[in-house]
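ok trying again, last paste got cut off:
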Amino acid sequence: MTVKQARPLPIPGGEYSEENEAVTRRQIEHNFRQVNEDLDDVYSGFQGSGSLHMRKFQFLLMGASNG
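nice, full thing came through this time. structure:
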């Protein structure tokens, strides 16, 4: 999984700028889409064969000694 870094929102100017507002809106929409995709990836990891393999691995570790 790649490490994602948040980009800060631009500082608003003294006057209203339609271009800055559009860029900020696109950045926020992109961030929401990215978070939604990340959540979908996490949620899908709890289902399907990947989840079954993880449960099997955890079950096998239950019998392992801690020494």
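cool. Residues 22 and 28 are 10 Å apart (CA to CA). The mean pLDDT is 78.
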